[in-house]
UniProtKB/TrEMBL annotation:
CDD domains: NPD_like. InterPro entries: Aldolase_TIM, NMO. The keyword Oxidoreductase applies. This is 2-nitropropane dioxygenase. SUPFAM superfamilies: Inosine monophosphate dehydrogenase (IMPDH). It comes from Gluconobacter cerinus. It comes from the Bacteria. Keywords: Dioxygenase, Flavoprotein, FMN, Oxidoreductase. One of its GO terms (molecular function) is dioxygenase activity. Signal peptide: none annotated.
Length: 347
C-alpha cells in the first residue's frame, strides 16, 4: 500500500466520528453565514461530500420552510439548519425543521434550553450547539446536545474573545462523549489534521466557501475577499462600555470607519443630554441594520458589512465548492504522509 493510501486511511479514521454523526463523506461543515448559506451553497457543499448548513438568521418560519424545500430539491444528501436561540419564533422554526425531516439542527447565538434541545431530538433531528468555554460545553452535553462546535475568535461574523488554538487545548482533551467540531481561521487541510489529532471530529469552514463559485454573494463581495489580507479582517470596536457593541469580524472599510464616528457622535449627544441612554444604544445597534445584505447581495462592499474570518488572506481565487473540498482533503492527506515520513526518518 502506498504512503498516500495509508495517509488517506488515517484521515478517514481520524474524522470517522464526525462523518458518522453528520452522515457525510468528509467531516467538513459549511459555516452558517446569513444571506450566503442558502440553497445553492448548502446543496453544493453536501453534494461535494461535506455538510452544508442553512443560515436561518432572522427568517420567518414560512421563509425557512421555503429554503429547506428548495435545498432538498438540489441535494439528496444530509444538511443542517442553523437557528438563532434568541429568535422569537424558535419553537416554530424547530417544528419546520422537524416537519421537513432536516437531519441536524445547529442551535447558535446563546445557550439553548433543555426544552428546545428535547424538541429537536424528539422530532428526530440531531442537536448541535456552540461551546465557547469548557464549562458551557459540559453543561450543553448534560442538557442533551449531541455534538459541539468550538469556534475561535479568528472566525468571521459574530465571534467570542478566545482563539481556536486556546479553545482546542481547553476543551478537546476533556469532552469525549460527543463529537467536537473546530471552527475559526481554518483555510487549509493540514490545519484541520492538527485539530483532528488533538481529538476533534471534524471542522467547520465559512470564509473559504463564501468566495466559492456556488456562493450567491455579489462579485464585489468575492473580489473584496481575494484582495484582503488576514489583518484586514477586524472585529468591530466598542468606544464606551456603557454602550456595548457585539464583536463582529469583517473587512475594514468605510462602513466600519463610519461606525466609529457614529458611536462617538451618539455618545457625545447622550453626554450633552440630547438623547436618552436607551435611544443612544438603539441608534448604535441599528447602524448596521441591513448592512450585511448591502454587501452580500447588492455588492456595496464599502458601506456594507463584509463579514470575513482571518483565513480570508488564504482565499486567492473563486473556485467551485467541490474543488475547495478536494483540495482540503488533499492537503490533509499530504500532511499526514509527510508527518509519517518525518517520524520514520528520525526513528
Amino acid at each position: 500500500m502506498s504512503a498516500m493510501t495509508d495517509a488517506r486511511e488515517t484521515l478517514n479514521r481520524l474524522w470517522k466520528p464526525g462523518c458518522d454523526f453528520l452522515g457525510s463523506e468528509v467531516a467538513i461543515l459549511g459555516g452558517a453565514m446569513s444571506w450566503v448559506s442558502e440553497r445553492n451553497l448548502v446543496s453544493a457543499i453536501s453534494n461535494a461530500g461535506g455538510f452544508g448548513v442553512i443560515a436561518c438568521g432572522a427568517m420567518t418560519p414560512e421563509r425557512l420552510e421555503e429554503e429547506i424545500v428548495a435545498t432538498q430539491a438540489l441535494t439528496k444528501r444530509p444538511f443542517g439548519v442553523n437557528l438563532i436561540t434568541m429568535h422569537p419564533e424558535l419553537e416554530r422554526l424547530v417544528d419546520v425543521c422537524v416537519a421537513h425531516k432536516v437531519s441536524h439542527v445547529v442551535l447558535a447565538g446563546g445557550v439553548p434550553t433543555s426544552a428546545i434541545i428535547k424538541r429537536v431530538r424528539d422530532g428526530g433531528a440531531r442537536a448541535i450547539g456552540f461551546a465557547p468555554a469548557l464549562a458551557l460545553g459540559k453543561r450543553l452535553v448534560k442538557l442533551g446536545i449531541e455534538a459541539l462546535i468550538i469556534e475561535g475568535s479568528e472566525a468571521g461574523g459574530h465571534v467570542g474573545p478566545v482563539s481556536l488554538t486556546v479553545l482546542a487545548q481547553e476543551i478537546l482533551p476533556h469532552i469525549k462523549d460527543v463529537p467536537v467540531f473546530v471552527a475559526g481561521g481554518l483555510g487549509r487541510g493540514d490545519a484541520i489534521v492538527s485539530y483532528l489529532e488533538q481529538g476533534a471530529s471534524g471542522a467547520q469552514l465559512g470564509t473559504i466557501f463564501a468566495a466559492s463559485e456556488e456562493s450567491i454573494a455579489h462579485e464585489n463581495f468575492k473580489k473584496a475577499f481575494l484582495r484582503a489580507n488576514a489583518r484586514d479582517a477586524v472585529t468591530s470596536v466598542q468606544l464606551d462600555e456603557q454602550f456595548p457593541v457585539i464583536p463582529v469580524r469583517g473587512l475594514a472599510n468605510a462602513g466600519s470607519r463610519g461606525f466609529l464616528k457614529h458611536q462617538a457622535e451618539t455618545i457625545r449627544t447622550f453626554q450633552s443630554g440630547g438623547v436618552s441612554k436607551e435611544d443612544a444604544q438603539l441608534s448604535i445597534e441599528h447602524f448596521w441594520a441591513g448592512a450585511l445584505r448591502r454587501a452580500v447581495i447588492e455588492g456595496d462592499v464599502e458601506n456594507g458589512s463584509v463579514m470575513a474570518g482571518q483565513s480570508v488572506g488564504m482565499v486567492k481565487e473563486v473556485r467551485p465548492v467541490s474543488e475547495i473540498i478536494a483540495t482540503l482533503v488533499e492537503q490533509a492527506v499530504e500532511a499526514i504522509a509527510k508527518r509519517e515520513d518525518r517520524v520514520h526518518a528520525s526513528a
